[in-house]
Amino acid sequence: MIQNVGNHLRRGFASVFSSRTSQKSASRAEHNGAMADGEGYRNPTEVQMSQLVLPCHTNQHSELSVGQLLKWIDIAACLSAERHAGCPCVTASMDDIYFEHTISVGQVVNIKAKVNRAFNSSMEVGIQVVSEDMCSEKQWSVCKALATFVAHREISKVKLKQITPRTEEEKTEYSVAAERRRMRMVYEDTIKDLLANYVIQDDLGSRDCSSMVPAEKTRVESVELVVPSHANHQGNTFGGQIMAWMENVATIAASRLCCAQPTLKAIEMFHFRGPSQIGDRLVLKAIVNNAFKHSMEVGVRVDAYRQEAEIHRRHINSAFMTFVVLDADDQPQLLPWIRPQPGDGERRYREASARKKIRLDRKYIVSCKQTEVPLSVPWDPSNQVYLSYNNVSSLKMLVAKDNWVLSSETNQVRLYTLEDDKFLSFYMEMVVHVDAAQAFQLLSDLSRRPVWDKHYRSAELLQQVDEDDAIYHVISPPLGGETKPQDFVILASRRKPCDNGDPYVIALRSVMLPTHRETPEYRRGETLCSGFCLWREGDQLTKVSYYNQATTGFLNYLTTNVAGLSSEFCTTFKACEQFLLDNRNDLAPSLQTL
Ligand code: COA
Ligand code: ADP
């Protein structure tokens, strides 16, 4: 059941706002209040905002300032969160944002926000920004954003009601939101660990200092007084307002380096560490941390204090922004080298280089904006969190598709197929009299798979990355007419349910390990998206599904099974059932708590 698969990494965050396409799955009768006038199904948490860009909203290029856009995004997202929560909400964080287009004065900005998932007191809100030119009637996607809002009630901690996703897109977002939350919660620690453990090389010593711009020249300090117009009805400063002030000082710092008008390309995650209220003084400090060939990283820090207690400063936020300077043809211009201050400046200079690598990994593995990515992404400590995210979210997206077709049913094993533009995928499903947590434990240990899957000759554990992620070297017999056996280096990422109704997930994808490169002995096979979902159907009753996304190498084998010319899939899956039944009591004591 492993395969050669094609290239399919353009998923992840990039598909967040794919469309409101699968409207057919929404039952109208079920949605009181979820209807838009004559438009069909509309997500009940969806909020739309349209703004005409006026000169007062623009920057020095007569384009909409990112700060203003962030304010609108934050308000639309907050209103969507409050619509779901029914009580006041505050911005806890805003994930990375990449800006694809600028917006000119006279154009219209359309913002759509909806709650993807509610957890305990927090919610993930997805925001889509599209600009519209009224004269040409053209529209452009400007950016997509994901914000976390936390609901607050004075008397008690809020327990939010769950979101019920209806459409395929909503189901995908709902499912993947749990994985994104997991990544967000470890974000700061991940970055800290990487910065602490990474050997960051720089060429500071070898550069000609005379042609460098001292970083000190770019330092900015600015103070803001929070007045009622910056705050919500509870007196809390809007997150969007703080982000706008941060963007303002960052732009000044960037301009001082390049002596030109910079353009903001990307913002790294904003995390609001603590609240700020009307009457607070906010001190914003920014400096260019590093200038690369065509882009620079500006860091901004915000602290708050009350007039009566200036020494008690509260750290509100720190963020890093990437700027470029564009020429008349919109091409990024060369930037001058920067000379950091000894001490903190040099540390930030090195850390900015490391962050650049992390940012690229995150962008290409998580956001998956590229058109071509090698199937087996190289495994390294700096991208392991994102590869693990990608592994699980790819499987969840496949599971959430709503155009699966039942192809056959033999011996209570159902085979479903899905034909996409590029891929033929299948999943097999059966109900087994085994506890879901047991099945999860048994199936997530790939070294036991040769017992029931004859396509696994052996599976050796190479690296136990953490409690939930492990890398295996799998050897499988030659496939259809080949003489060489195949081998795979597979990352297995497992997840327990985040909520009632969520499945246990075991996601599998190929990775490239420097210690286990392709050898002449084996033909290197690759799998990009396969794995198990296990749903608890009752006590000692589990629905086991195995998913696989196939492309050319595996296609013949798959179509033979789908067409009923072979029953090998079914036989293998039945062997899996027997394995689970034979080992149903084979439990580590720790499992009882799963
Ligand atoms: N990103 C996303 N969500 C986060 C988060 C982060 N960096 N940090 C915490 N959360 C979530 C937690 O997962 C938890 O969600 P859950 O209840 O659904 O499980 C929720 O926030 C509360 O977490 P908890 O640990 O109880 O609280 P905390 O002490 O970490 O406080 C905030 C979290 C967001 C409430 C707090 O940091 C805060 O008040 N920040 C300022 C918010 C604000 O005022 N923003 C406007 C601009 S200043
Ligand atoms: P770190 O120093 O580890 O980067 P901080 O949260 O203290 O983390 O600061 C975030 C960023 O804000 C820094 O990287 C820097 O770019 C900017 N910054 C912090 N302090 C100052 C300051 N005193 N003057 C100018 N910019 C600052």
Please give a structural write-up.
With 594 residues, this protein is an alpha+beta fold. 25% of the residues lie in helices and 31% in strands. The chain contains 8 helices and 27 strands. The protein has helices at residues 66-85, 168-197, 239-258, 344-367, 384-400, 436-444, 552-562, 568-582; strands spanning 35-36, 40-41, 47-52, 89-94, 97-98, 108-118, 122-132, 139-151, 213-214, 220-225, 263-267, 270-271, 281-291, 296-306, 309-324, 338-339, 377-378, 405-410, 413-419, 424-432, 458-464, 469-476, 486-495, 504-512, 523-524, 530-538, 541-550. Strands 17, 18, 19, 20, 21, 22, 23, 24, 25, 26 and 27 form an 11-stranded mixed beta sheet that branches. A 6-stranded antiparallel beta sheet has the order 3-6-7-8-4-12. It has a 6-stranded antiparallel beta sheet with strand order 5-11-15-14-13-10. A hairpin with a 3-residue loop joins strand 6 (108-118) and strand 7 (122-132). Helix 4 (344-367) packs parallel to helix 5 (384-400). It is globular and about 70 Å long. It binds coenzyme A (COA) and adenosine-5'-diphosphate. The site of coenzyme A has 22 residues, from strand 4, strand 8 and helix 3.
